[in-house]
Amino acid sequence: MIEFTFWDILRNLVFATRWTVLLSIAAFVGGGVVGIAILFLRISKTKWMRRFASGYIALFQGTPLLMQLFLMFFGLPMLGFRIEPWTAAVLGLTFFASAYLAEIWRSGVDALPRGQWDAGASLGLHYVQELRLIILPQAFAITRAPVVGFLVQLIKATALTSIIGFEELLRTSNAINNATFEPFTVYGLVALIFFVLCYPLTQYARSLEARAAAR
């Protein structure tokens, strides 16, 4: 057993937290970009595009995230792609996030009255301009609370990437616990760090919901 002081454990966990934060940001941004593309397909006037987007969303919402990560990390090398744990983690979480974000934003689009589309048409805007200038800004505004709420879930989901070897907070904590045999201290600090990351976002999502309800 290796001797670690409390501050040694805390310092190493805080250092590992940066990878959890970076992974969360990369997956959220990547998921947002892909999610917007899926959203365009989901609300498209073309039937096969809507079906493709619906199938994509159903696939990633209806299968375990851990299985998706396994397919990225173990499956892609069998097709000839060399992939590192960081890349597999980002790709897996990006596709996972994109399905949920696309559906959240689609609900925002559906919540807008038909008159918003008609107003754009009366101004002579074509379909893409209507989306860019009228529909999407409003859809994004009314779905801010669920998007922030999903970000909280995404941060917690990064813990699963430890199983494919990505050195984030949970994998580091497992290594420290194996060396110190102090599970209550190690995992208690991990829980506290996740709480510090997620609680402010949860409160922010609630405040957004309260503002929306007050309008």
UniProtKB/TrEMBL annotation:
Cite a single Pfam family from the UniProt record. BPD_transp_1
Which positions, given as ranges, span the membrane?
Answer: 20-41, 53-74, 86-105, 141-164, 184-202
The question of whether NAD is a record keyword is answered with no
Q: Which UniProt keywords apply?
A: Cell membrane, Membrane, Transmembrane, Transmembrane helix, Transport
Q: What is its main location?
A: membrane
> CDD domains per the record?
TM_PBP2
Q: Which domain of life is it from?
A: Bacteria
Record domain ABC transmembrane type-1: where: 17-205
This protein's membrane topology, according to the annotation, is:
Multi-pass membrane protein
InterPro entries attached here? Answer: AA_ABC_transptr_permease_3TM (IPR010065), ArtM/GltK/GlnP/TcyL/YhdX-like (IPR043429), MetI-like (IPR000515), MetI-like_sf (IPR035906)
Q: Subcellular location, in the record's words?
A: Cell inner membrane; Cell membrane
> Which Gene3D superfamilies does this chain map to?
MetI-like
List the NCBIfam families.
Answer: HEQRo_perm_3TM (TIGR01726)
Q: Which family does it belong to?
A: Belongs to the binding-protein-dependent transport system permease family. HisMQ subfamily.
The name this protein goes by in its record: Polar amino acid transport system permease protein
